[in-house]
Amino acid sequence: MTWFAPPRHPSSPDARGALVRVLSADRGRTAGAGVYLSGRRLLTCAHVINAALGLRSLSPHNPGKITLDVSFPVRSASELHPARLVAWIPPRSPQFGPVADGSLEWDGDLAVLELDAEPPPPVGPVRWLEMEHGQRVRAWYGGGQPFSYADARVGAYDGRICYLDGQLSGAAVDEGYSGGPLWSVTDEAVVGLVMGRITAPDGALSAQHTVRRSWGLGWQSVLWELARVGAAPDGRRNGARERPTATLAEAESVRDMMVGPLHGLLGDPRARADHATVLAAQLALRAPADGSAPTVEELAGLLSTTERALPTLTESLAAKVADDPRGRAELDRLLALGRLTEAARLLSVAEHRALTGKLEHLTQDDPGLLPRAATAALPYVDLPRSLQAARLAPSAVPAVVHELEGWSGDGSPVPEETPRLPALLRVVEYVAAGTSGELARQALREWSGRVAARLGIHASALQERRGDADRWSRRAAPTGVRLLVELDRSATDPADHYRCSVWRLRPDGSPARVASESDRPRDGREIARLIREVAGGAEGAEDGVALVAVSVPPDALELALDEWDGAGTDEYIPAPLGEDFHLVLRCPRIRRRSRTGPADLRRRWNARHHSDILLADHRIGGRAGLIGLLKTTHRDTARVLVQGSSEHRGELLPVCLVMGVPVVLWDRASPGPAGGGRLDALAPHGPVDELPERVRHFRVRAYADQAVSARPALVWEDAGMPLPDELQLADPSEGTERTG
User: Fold this and answer.
1) What is the pLDDT of residue 167?
2) Which residues contact 624 (CB under 8 A, 6 or more apart)?
3) What is the DSSP string of 499-517?
4) Per-residue confidence (pLDDT) for residue 209, from 0 to 100
5) At what angle do helices 438-455 and 423-434 cross, to 10 degrees?
6) What pTM did the predictor assign?
7) Are 118 and 207 in contact, with CB atoms under 8 Å apart?
8) What pLDDT does 242 receive?
9) Contact (CB, 8 A) for 69 and 81
10) For residues 92 and 161, is the Cβ–Cβ distance under 8 A?
11) What is the distance between the alpha carbons of residues 317 and 276, in angstroms, rounded to a whole number?
12) 248-266 and 269-282 are packed helices; what angle lies between their axes, rounded to 10 degrees?
């Protein structure tokens, strides 16, 4: 038994809490076993998948996007869950060729399945440890019957495959055991997977025959295979990982290199015992109560293989070395080595618990805060899918934090070769700046400061990023009501009449339907009055200028809806929509004509403060020339100024929208190439987020001065605002609904 021992869990005394039964495609038999990894992912053998599908057992061909039923024997053998194949590592020979039928051993042979949702309790992940020669292990039949256990001993393990020898009593590994966990009874952890058995030849059994010998893959081999295809349990799936996946030899080297700094920091056995006891308590491990200390080598092994062990230990060591430059240098060495391992993670157990609690609380009140902050903090990164939506559920926060912990650090310069600010801390600073609660902001910044100090990040680097976040929050703060309007018409509607629906965006970014007037066509004046009524009656109407984003059909991009006057018959002053609101256009029907449209829009929108404006006039080379530029030198361009005749604009505007350009400006009254410069007063090259207000000022002057003939039109596709056709729409026949 090692100094660090796993906790005793009465509801899961062995690996059966994670055992998976893989059924055949016809659900008529047990094809094999598997083991629950974490989240929604399961691990089994590729030949188990082949057997379930009725294919040749050792076929290397990927069966594709197939779904099989699985169950969890610890819960119910009859409660089935569909699981999709998401990673395939085919059986292969040591020479990376096909495996012949009748072969006694092979490499690879793994498959990862994904459930629709995380399995319910008591199903849970198990602890994994490296396999060692001599370990006593236990396996179970895929059905999970308690009597089906088969005990064996690791007779040989060469770092590739292991041979298991069973006693001549009890059950033996047989068909249906493959893919199941090998549970180390002494270490109370899974150390590998069952792969197959070595049977005696046909004929009479003799004392010279191999009896009850099976074989499997040790955890080291399994982890190497999974990491090779990007399917390791803690691995990132989007290719943006800061550190490369380490091979088994590299992981062992990291563990050995940790011994030196640990000797420098915890060479005294009494100090090592104190810190190790605290560490064990934080990791929910058992530690001896006799005052003994683990060896430095054992502590290094724990730090290199156990999630959050390293940052948790360095959290208690940081105060010890605060005034000791040599100690701080050793701590920095330890942290640098930790970045080479998958297990270390960024945050300690306490830091992670505190952050997830704070973010879950904030997300409950404002589901859009974390996605908005992450988008602004990491503008050049393809964020996880959960952060690409406008809203985030509190239950998704732990997974988002886990994902962001592994992202690359801040690319900005740092003083004195100190560590870069991790991406997660930058996001936290933006969340703090974006929250409206002073206490919440202070708590997040204190948390960020403590983590930065532990990591050795220079205070000026943190303050600089904090200043960036403050400037973003001031620029991004909503200045008024935000409305989404959808216009549509049918072939039988009168000319210049449209059916109209209106939504108001709540502060968290979620939509509230406030008017559904799609039951009959209306003219521009009626629609303008409706918009004015909704905007004027919404909460916060007195706080600045409202943004009105109008979704129009493709043939209505040149519509003069900014000139629609919503003033009542008894009002003295005209009220064109373009004067009173930040009136912008959207055209989802064109946008939907690209499979990569949503990703292109997010990428360009996130780069809007850093990319230059592109002038699309008669010199650009028409449609083909614009496409070429937006695919190459202007791949991240967020603003396009279209100049030219109506025919020229009709050719180029759809290109901009289909290719995800979020900000497109043009003069709908331009006579042609000679009309260039008519919008110079708008300062198209100026700060992008102030462009809607500059357009509104221009319109006020243009409507009052007949000498100004330009009429600006602005497409403004805020990636954080849902489009009307993305909302859950009510049936227009149900009538008009109004909310406050």
Assistant:
1) 67
2) none
3) EEEEEEE-TTS-EEEEEEE
4) 39
5) 160
6) 0.50
7) no
8) 33
9) yes
10) no
11) 11
12) 120
Instruction: State whether the Cα torsion 613-618-623-626 is positive or negative.
Output: negative
Per-residue pLDDT at 226: 86
Helix count and strand count (H, E) for the chain: 21, 21
Site of tokens 């973003």: 472
Q: Buried b vs exposed e over 421-433: b needs ≥16 C-beta within 10 Å?
A: bbbbbbbbbbbbb
Which tokens belong to 621?
A: 């080379």
Q: Which of 588, 564, 567 is nearest to 578 (CA)?
A: 564
Q: Are strands 136-139 and 614-616 parallel, antiparallel or unpaired?
A: unpaired
Q: Which two tokens stand for residue 355?
A: 């952050």
Low-confidence ranges of the chain (pLDDT < 70): 1, 6-13, 167-172, 198-212, 234-251, 342, 384-386, 388-390, 408-417, 475-479, 507-509, 515-518, 537-543, 675, 724-740
Burial call 374-411: b when 16+ CB within 10 Å, e when fewer: bbbbbbebebbebbbbbbbebebbeebbbbbbbbebbe
Q: Output Rg (C-alpha) for the chain, integer angstroms.
A: 32
Token look-up 């994904």 returns 114
> What residue has token string 């960024």?
346
Distances from the Cα of 632 to the Cα of 4, 231, 369, 629, 693, angstroms = 55, 32, 33, 5, 31
Closest CA to 692 of 675, 715, 709: 715
The closest of 161, 10, 43, 33 to 111, measured between CA atoms, is 43
- 352 touches 282 (CB < 8 A): no
CB 46 within 8 A of CB 52: no
DSSP 572: S
Write 485-489 long-range contacts (CB < 8 A, 24+).
485/527, 485/531, 485/548, 485/549, 485/550, 485/551, 485/724, 486/550, 486/551, 486/724, 486/725, 487/527, 487/550, 487/551, 487/552, 487/553, 487/556, 487/561, 488/518, 488/553, 489/521, 489/553
3-state SS assignment for residue 240: coil
**For the chain, how many residues are written?**
740
Cis, peptide link before residue 122, omega less than 30° from 0: yes
Q: Is 115 exposed, middle or buried (0-12, 13-18, 19+ CB in 10 A)?
A: middle
pLDDT in tens, 571-602: 888 889 999 999 999 999 998 898 888 889 98
Give the C-alpha separation, 676 to 674, whole Å: 6
Instruction: Copy the structure tokens of residue 152.
Output: 């064996």
Tokens of 208: 């010279």
Q: Which single residue is written with the structure tokens 């207000």? A: 693
3-class secondary-structure state, position 573: coil
Spatial contact of 729 and 488, defined as CB atoms under 8 Å apart: no
